[in-house]
């Protein structure tokens, strides 16, 4: 079963370097699976997501004094606000310490920061502007606007920022985020990694440009697949009945496992957790976890 899955992915990507990558992902994570959680509603999901994120935060701070995470756009920032801005119970296990957060973007649209398509603007409007002074303020890494006309240079400069954060003292092959918070598109894309796109074969760059996104705007930058799967923890947030068809495909079919979200599941295995509501997983046969 697992080897058939790997062969299918290799044929899909049709690239010699990806053959080695996918075989490595398959053999390394054989028998290990992502965690699928389903909640009755967004409020219940947000409560558990809060606890999960704080646990990741505290682990990151314990390791290196900071909490380094990457976030996507879509409906995610609003869900994060619901989870993180709620009053806590006190104590380290329920305290969000934004002053220790360093936020990068898992992908970004190459538009001005006040543009409606900007993931930075979305996060700013939904979460950043609503953080009270007592909670501290995170360090946020937006794109550099001087490169709006050169998507390759913008990707290079964003990667340089990652290198300064993750490899300032020691050389590393890949950055290791404490947590990546991702969404799932109706076609199974995540970040700006789209089905059947050549960027799925990118194995060297940390940040890659895309100028032919099938979803507008066409020009974007995105973390590469190896960076995503290298994270300490990876969380998808997918809610609503509109997600049930693609989640069924991702979790229950061979074809779905070669979609970008499926490749993250394969590469991240048990490091990956899906936070969904019951509407999003209606008809999904993949087993749910009982608790986070």
Supply the key terms:
single chain; alpha/beta; three-stranded antiparallel β-sheet; 15% strand; globular; disordered N terminus
Compact description:
With 292 residues, this protein is of the alpha/beta class.
Describe the structure.
- The chain has 292 residues and is α/β, with parallel strands linked by helices.
- The protein contains nine helices and ten strands.
- The chain has a seven-stranded parallel sheet with strand order 1-10-9-6-2-3-5, sandwiched between helices. A three-stranded antiparallel sheet has the order 4-8-7.
- The model is unreliable at 1-28 (pLDDT under 50).
* Mean pLDDT across residues: 90
Question: Which percent bin holds the helix content?
Answer: 25-40%
Report the end-to-end length measured between terminal Cα atoms.
28 Å
Pairing-aware structural class of the strands and helices?
A: alpha/beta
Shape: globular
Note the beta-strand portion. 5-15%
The neighbouring-strand order within the major sheet is 1-10-9-6-2-3-5
The quaternary organization reads as single chain
Radius of gyration: 18 Å
Low-confidence stretches: 1-28
**Helical stretch count?**
9
Order of helices and strands: HHEHEHEEHEHEEEHEHHE
